[in-house]
Amino acid sequence: MYNQKSLKAEEFISDKEIRETLAYAEENKENREVIDRILEKARQKKGLNHREASVLLACEIPEKLEEIYALAEQIKKDYYGNRIVLFAPLYLSNYCVNGCVYCPYHLKNSNIARKKLTQEEIRREVIALQDMGHKRLAIEAGEDPVNNPIEYILECIDTIYSIKHKNGAIRRVNVNIAATTVENYRRLKEAGIGTYILFQETYHKETYERIHPTGPKHDYAYHTEAMDRAMEAGIDDVGLGVLFGLEMYRYEFAGLLMHAEHLEAVHGVGPHTISVPRIKRAEGIDPSDFDNGISDDIFAKICALIRISVPYTGMIISTRESKEVRERVLHLGVSQISGASRTSVGGYVEPEEENSQQFDVSDNRTLDEVVNWLMKLGYIPSFCTACYREGRTGDRFMALCKSMQILNCCHPNALMTLKEYLEDYAGEETREIGMELIARGLEEIPNPRAKQTAYEYIHDISRGMRDFRF
Ligand code: SAM
Question: Residue 452 C-alpha to ligand 1 middle, in angstroms?
Fold first, then answer.
């Protein structure tokens, strides 16, 4: 039985409800009256539930699709302005006891060299990341209670936060590790993590069990209920995601929104972010072995629909996607992207050996190239970490977003962190474009006091001071 508020995976992600949703979407995909009603609700920024959003996903009427894209773009502008937050993944360890058939870290893969960073190696990786200009990391690790116990992850987080090289600092560490216990989530919270990210991979239980044949990750309920445990432990910024390609995208899309609705219903706050990875080639992994790959068009449609369905949730695109695809979806609602990523353990310091990556990266540009490109497209690259450091997490962040105070708060924070980047790390051309962008951006701050303070802070950054925030 479908029950949004249940704490049981099979009740809040009910297979029957998803199937009925898909049937309802199929029946209504050409029903203009229903579609217009749904679009009107989205236009009022009320978000959409999984049934409504699924109708739009099934709809193929060209002018309605245009409306969806235009609306996604508008909602993105209203809530996020033109800021794009930048981050990088940091792979700590590829030891893993699971059997995930899409991931090269799986236990039986003897073709990859197993590696776990020492604290000294982490120092070197973090310095390399700081020297590029990164301020936010997402740490990644396989699941292995012996090689990567929670104590190891906590020690790594401490090390990362402790390193201050030149003007560099990592100010927010997001964590992407396997589902764990409430007690371990509490320890992560105490270590000062930003978002806890865990991809569901697939919401389809049978498929989930088939593609996770062995190891602790095989347990569908334990994995699906992980975010409830994280929230119970006090982590109120959690990041959802589906690995597109494993199952039918319409099924996954409905499941993803049901998961978001469940978190909102039970904990009073929806997901902080949603990621939309697609399966990529890796050692022993051929994406064409999976039957449910999605085209770039469908990918863009999914991004636009996530944006209008959950307007306050950030959306993340990694370097799994090419420059072209990233460019296409940026204005449809993506709010965070990774840049200059290395997906092998130790990859920021050592040259990456062939087939050592967790997946092939499609966007190989440097961080400076990414920053430069974003600005030329009219975006403000942001290294901001202010909300979490000011305690604006969970519903407090959502309140900021809903009150549309972004131009007085997030916008100046973005400009100030961009200014730091330009002072400390940018190439000459990037610096020139950025300085102009900041000058124009400061003028856009509506509140006169906020504007005055932002001017002063930007000036102080030119004089060598760092780390201002609203
Ligand atoms: N081991 C942890 C877990 O099980 O959740 C965490 C992290 S894993 C390093 C990060 C994510 O990479 C996985 O959740 C999966 O969605 C994604 N991934 C794995 N193999 C991939 C591939 N071949 N292509 C694209 N993404 C992949």
Answer: 44
Mutation probe of ligand 1 site: the residue of 87, 90, 103 with most atoms within 8 A of C-beta: 103
Ligand 1 probe mutation, 150, 199, 286, most atoms within 8 A of CB: 199
What residues flank ligand 1, with Cβ below 6 Å?
102-103, 140, 142-143, 176-178, 198-199, 201, 217, 243, 277, 279-280, 282, 285, 320, 358-359
Per the CB < 8 A criterion, the answer to whether 452 and 432 are in contact is no
Q: At CB < 8 A and 24+ separation, what contacts does 5-8 make? A: 5/262, 5/265, 5/266, 7/225, 7/228, 7/266, 8/221, 8/225
Per-residue pLDDT 10s for the chain (470 aa) are 999 999 999 999 999 999 999 999 999 999 999 999 999 999 999 999 999 999 999 999 999 999 999 999 999 998 888 999 999 999 999 999 999 999 999 999 999 999 999 999 999 999 999 999 999 999 999 999 999 999 999 999 999 999 999 999 999 999 999 999 999 999 999 999 999 999 999 999 999 999 999 999 999 999 999 999 999 999 999 999 999 999 999 999 999 999 999 999 999 999 999 999 999 999 999 999 999 999 999 999 999 999 999 999 999 999 999 999 999 999 999 999 999 999 999 999 998 888 889 999 999 999 999 999 999 999 999 999 999 899 988 888 878 777 767 788 999 999 999 999 999 999 999 999 999 999 999 999 999 999 999 999 999 999 999 999 99
DSSP track, 61-109: -HHHHHHHHHHHHHHHHHHHTTEEEEEEEEEEE-------TT-TTSTT-
Q: List the beta bridge partners of residue 221.
A: none
- What residue's CA is closest to ligand 1, atom 1? 142
Are the CB atoms for 286 and 245 separated by under 8 Å?
A: no
Give residue 103 CA to ligand 1 midpoint distance, Å.
Answer: 6
Query: Which contacts of 463-469 are long-range, i.e. CB under 8 A and separated by 24 or more positions?
Result: 466/167, 466/420, 467/169, 467/171, 467/420, 468/416, 469/384, 469/386, 469/389, 469/390, 469/413, 469/416
Distance CA 57, CA 302 (A): 7
d(CA 198, CA 384): 22
**Among protein residues, the one whose CA lies closest to atom 13 of ligand 1:** 199
The DSSP call for residue 352 is: P
